[in-house]
Amino acid sequence: MLKKGSKLNSILTGSCPRCQNESMYVNKNPYNMAKVLDMHETCSYCGLRYQLEPSFFYGAMYVSYAVNVAVGIAAFIVSHYFLDLNLKMSFGVIVGSLLILYPPILRWSRNIYINMFVSYKGKEGN
Predict the structure, then answer these.
(1) Which residues pair with 15 in a beta bridge?
(2) Taking the mean position of all CA atoms in its chain, how far away is CA 51?
(3) What pLDDT is attached to residue 84?
(4) What pLDDT, on the 0 to 100 scale, is given for residue 58?
(5) How far apart are CA 18 and CA 8, in angstroms?
(6) DSSP-assigned beta bridge partners for residue 49
(7) What is the 3-state secondary structure (H, E, C) of 5-73?
(8) For residue 108, how many other CB atoms are within 10 A of its CB?
(9) Mean pLDDT, the chain, integer
(10) H/E element holding 95?
(11) What pTM was estimated for this model as a whole?
(12) 58-103 tens-digit pLDDT
């Protein structure tokens, strides 16, 4: 499932979608808020330019919205139905989970978005 060559591997690890040999991000820690979205210009292994066109990652905002909605719904279902919390406490769980997961969701949305347009090439893509 997370083997090299799968889109899920590239999305969760933040590696280059074409070769999956290098991280796209300058700092691997998403909780370093000053550098959470700092990316390399190109992959040093395969040469893929990450910003495919000017303002390319603006489209990732739509992906981020969808991921945040999914996380909010999942947090509500778990807190309200499985943990049997009232609505106010469930709302607090939603807000807390979204705040805690904000940096990884920023990166995941970029990773998902670039993986929509770039496919894994492996050794022959270099």
Answers:
(1) 23
(2) 15
(3) 96
(4) 93
(5) 13
(6) 42
(7) CCHHHHHHHCECCCCCCCECECCCCCCCHHHCCCECCECCCCCCECCCCCCHHHHHHHHHHHHHHHHHH
(8) 20
(9) 92
(10) helix 87-100
(11) 0.88
(12) 999 999 999 999 999 999 999 999 999 999 999 999 999 999 999 9
